[in-house]
Write a structure and sequence with these properties.
The complex is a heterodimer of chains A (99) and B (249).
Chain A: E1 2-9, E2 13-20, E3 26-33, E4 36-38, H1 41-50, H2 56-63, E5 70-72, H3 76-98
Helix pairs in contact in A: 1-2, 2-3
Chain B: E1 2-10, H1 12-27, E2 34-40, E3 44-47, H2 53-56, H3 59-65, E4 68-71, E5 79-81, E6 86-94, H4 102-119, E7 124-127, E8 131-134, E9 137-147, E10 150-158, H5 163-169, H6 174-179, H7 185-188, H8 192-196, H9 201-216, E11 221-223, H10 227-241, H11 243-246
Parallel strand pairs in B: 1-2, 1-11, 3-4
Antiparallel strand pairs in B: 2-6, 3-5, 6-10, 7-8, 8-9, 9-10
Helix pairs in contact in B: 1-10, 4-9
The chains are: A alpha+beta (99), B alpha/beta (249).
């Protein structure tokens, strides 16, 4: 299990705390910061959908949760790519270890 | 527009519970559009809905100093509410007309603060999303939530906030400070007293009410908190005191 954090600066600041488990699966993720989201619970629903994701398709699908929300101060597309980056990094470490 | 002057001061849990109660009661048609001006007594800290408590405040300092803290139902950042140096406003009203668009609603409602500050002689400006600045330094921050077509927006106006305590109480990520071109929270903020040298709180209050009246094109009348508002807040307050709510992130 690997725990990582990243701080992203858009108009507002976002911190992603993520725990990645076996097979590069997201065990836990918290997206925090001084941003605004309407409705507020859309972020909790996103976090919930991201749990168990282990590939980009699943992450893409999870972020659709925000499609009808307004998120202010955050570049959601970039945030999504950063979350995908955790999974890609994990996979590259695993595959690299096998060579 | 109903105006409640609630400036004697109550603790942070009560103030957050009253704001939420006003939103519920406005949604249910039990009250008119309401502007409340209030203070925190004792001084306290609130954090935004999405913040992690340990990333946004210095908990050890707050505990050692006996400064209360809780989480808001609104997004945005952590705020130090100085009982002797800050006026807080909250307003509940429907998201209609210019207030339908969220960004525009911040501009309209923060425009009331800009008006009030200019009225007392400060070159205030609105900086999206939710700040009002004087000479590039933040003097007021606001945060808004929306439920069922209604808005609760609350925000601060620092007239003589103890900025040394503010700096000890709050934590800002290095990335945020760098993006604002400052090295510390202290460099990022300013008070009315720092700029003008003196403060007339009554004049600030009067200017704020005038600012909201103009921003919303609404006649004002004065009122007090009702028994129903106090009852609903009393039912909500335990949430704001609870470890579960404060540490939920």
């Amino acid at each position: 299990m690997k725990q990582e954090s990243i701080i992203l600066r858009y108009e507002k600041t976002v911190k992603v705390d993520i725990v990645i488990g076996d097979e590069c699966r997201i065990i836990d993720i918290i997206i925090s910061g001084d941003f605004f989201a309407y409705p507020e619970d859309s972020i909790e629903r996103l976090e919930s959908k991201l749990k168990e994701c282990r590939d980009e398709l699943c992450i893409e699908e999870a972020f659709r949760e925000l499609s009808s929300s307004v998120v202010l101060g955050v570049n959601v597309e970039d945030l999504k790519n950063k979350v995908m980056g955790f999974i890609k990094n994990c996979r590259s470490v695993y595959s690299g270890g096998g060579i | 527009m109903r105006v409640i002057l609630d400036l004697e001061g109550r603790d942070v849990y009560w103030q957050m519970a009253i704001d939420e109660a006003l939103l519920h009661l406005r949604i249910n048609g039990r009250i008119d559009n309401t502007l409340r001006l209030y203070r925190f007594k004792p001084s306290a800290v609130t954090i935004g809905y999405f913040q992690r408590i340990r990333d946004s405040v210095n908990i050890d300092y707050l505990n050692a100093s006996g400064i209360d803290y809780t989480r808001r139902i609104t997004g945005g950042g952590s705020v130090y509410h100085d009982s002797g140096g800050e006026i807080t406003y909250s307003i509940v009203l429907p998201a209609e007309g210019a207030l339908v668009d969220i960004l525009e609603s911040y501009r309209v409602l923060c425009g009331a603060l800009v008006y009030a500050l200019r009225k007392i002689g400060l070159q205030a400006e609105f900086v999206p999303i939710n700040d009002v600045v004087v000479y590039g330094r933040k003097i007021s921050g606001s945060a808004q939530t929306r439920r069922l077509g209604y808005i609760l927006q609350h925000g601060t106006l620092m007239y003589a906030t103890d900025l040394d305590t503010l700096e000890k109480a709050l934590v800002a990520p290095r990335e945020k400070l760098m993006s604002k071109g400052v090295r510390s929270i202290r460099e990022r903020v300013v008070t009315i007293k720092e700029v003008l040298g003196s403060v007339d709180v009554d004049q600030i209050v009067k200017s704020l009410i005038e600012g909201f009246s103009r921003a919303l094109n609404a006649e004002v009348y004065y009122d007090e908190l009702s028994g129903e508002e106090i009852r609903v807040a009393s039912e909500i307050i335990s949430k704001y005191r609870s470890h579960e709510w404060i540490y939920r992130r």
